[in-house]
Amino acid sequence: MQAQATPPVFLQKILPREQLTEALRALPKPWVFTNGVFDVLHRGHVVYLAQARALGGSLIVALNTDASVKRLGKGDDRPLNKDADRAIVMASQESVSLVTWFDEDTPQALIAQIRPDILVKGGDYDMSKLPETALVESWGGYALALPFVAGYSTTQLVNRIRGT
Known about the structure:
Elements: H1 20-25, E1 31-36, H2 43-53, E2 58-64, H3 66-72, H4 83-91, E3 98-102, H5 108-114, E4 118-122, H6 131-137, E5 142-146, H7 154-162
Parallel strand pairs: 1-2, 1-4, 2-3, 4-5
């Protein structure tokens, strides 16, 4: 007789936008929000996520859908992992409280819906130039860029695998 496999609890962290309002009520504040592709999770991502989570009570991660990744111009073969797979890997991270998606070119509408206390991006962003920063600041939140962990990027990994 085979044992019944129970779905991992972390799958409960993955929610479509329509279910966010109720789920957010249960999350400790302040809410930290970040977004990105997170195509192949690596050391730089994991350190970044842990640092972001340490800024508040909960970390909300919004993933670009596959269609929005295509529009970012990262290459015809990106993302390597489908959005559902990226969401599962992201939800498995201890530092992540909730995972959702956005299909628009920017997460502004999703940020307006969630109203996080803190917006976090990677170190290559000038936060003062992002419209998302002004949006979060409009309700008293703030935005900051966390430094990259040098030497780690999905693009570098893909290029290394290809031998380019």
